[in-house]
Each structure stands twice: as structure tokens, then as C-alpha cells.
Design brief:
single chain; 105 residues; mainly alpha; Methane Monooxygenase Hydroxylase, Chain G, domain 1; 3 helices; 85% helix; PTS lactose/cellobiose transporter subunit IIA
Length: 105
């Protein structure tokens, strides 16, 4: 597979999985608002699995570049990285919100 195709596939993997992780985390927050903490935790676990897939794609790109491969920086890749970082922040904040809903400190 040529480098551009590999990079585009990695970008789409980042976008799709980090987007799913974010959506699942927001679903978990909605469950927590209703006091359904067990369901919220299950959704957060699903979110974590999606995040792991996105992180794996990012890590593979980083190792590839560190190994000397030239990774083309396209608007798609910038968008993918932005999507991943925004998703990571949202999930972290949602975990904190859920803790607050549970009344934990």
C-alpha cells in the first residue's frame, strides 16, 4: 500500500474511532444524569475501546515517521489529530462530571 493511502486510512481510523469514543462518552453522561451509573460505566468502557483503536492508529503513524517514513501532513490528517485530541479531552471531562453526579470526590 502506498504511503498516501496508508496515511489516509490512518486518518479515517482516527476520525471514526475518536468520534465514536466521544459519542459513547456523551451517552454515558446522559445515563449518569439519570442515575444509571452501571449503564454509564458500560458506555465508558466501549468508549475506551474505541479510543484504543484510534490511539493505535496514531502510534503506528508516529513510529512510521520516527523510522524515517515521510508522512504527508494533509488537512485530513490535521483534522484527524484535532478530532482525537478533542475526543480525549471530552472523555476526560465527562468522567469527571460522572464522578460529580455520583457524589464522589
Amino acid at each position: 500500500m502506498e504511503n498516501n493511502s496508508t496515511t489516509e486510512l490512518a486518518a479515517m481510523t482516527l476520525i471514526a474511532n475518536s468520534g465514536d469514543a466521544r459519542s459513547l462518552a456523551f451517552q454515558a453522561l446522559e445515563k449518569a444524569k439519570l442515575g444509571k451509573f452501571s449503564e454509564a460505566e458500560n458506555l465508558l468502557k466501549e468508549s475506551d475501546e474505541k479510543s484504543k483503536v484510534a490511539h493505535k492508529a496514531q502510534t503506528e503513524l508516529l513510529f512510521s515517521e520516527a523510522g524515517g517514513d515521510n508522512i504527508n501532513l494533509t488537512l485530513l490528517m490535521v483534522h484527524a489529530q484535532d478530532h482525537l485530541m478533542t475526543s480525549m479531552l471530552a472523555v476526560e471531562m465527562i468522567r469527571e462530571f460522572i464522578t460529580l453526579y455520583q457524589g464522589k470526590e
